[in-house]
Please model this.
Amino acid sequence: QVQLVQSGSELKKPGASVKVSCKGSGYTFTKHAINWVRQAPGQGLEWMGWINTDTGKPTYAQGFAGPFVFSLDTSVSTAYLQISRLKAEDTAVYYCARGGDCFDSWGQGTLVTVSS
Amino acid sequence: QSALTQPASVSGSPGQSIAISCIGTSSDVGANKYVSWYQQHPGKAPKLILFDVSVRPSGVSDRFSGSKSGNTASLTISGLQPEDEAHYYCTSWISSTNLVFGGGTKLTVL
Model:
């Protein structure tokens, strides 16, 4: 069955960087886009953008360029979200989700906590 | 871009039907068929329950239905059950490279 498995929770200090992974299985990884979605504590879902898993081309939503970088390692069917220059307001659960028109499979989420 | 507008909360009793609206603009909801709905239980990842306005993925109960009129999409849940208590989010593509979520609606089953 289709599955997206994300890396575990992270605790980082302000100014540090973090890299979240999202490994796909049960399907051909390069045939479906990977999207990234942020959910701050107690808040709603926010689309960060997506990466074309065939070409590697990322597309960032407004407000998510710069410190946020999407990348791939197709040899291990894995997408990555790297966040640099972390701030307290980056504390959130980050989800990867498969799909183009809609997001039909989601990772379990990765909690990134930024605190001194 | 602004989030799609959803009511913050709705409630209903078991067996009743409820509807959740998702108000957008002619640039998003009103512009195409790519409206989806997601259900999220506390501490869990969201789950796709409707796509292309009204299409249910395999395994989703037929108690969930969707519709759209102009710039407003709606999710209807009939025969409410306790396990339907969750947050619900709508989404719409604005362009081929830009997507917006609704603010989310908390459904309480009384």
User: Anything to note?
Assistant: The radius of gyration of chain A is 13 Å. The mean pLDDT of chain A is 96. Chain A touches chain B at residues 35, 37, 44-47, 59, 61-62, 95, 97, 101-104, 106-109 (CB under 8 Å).
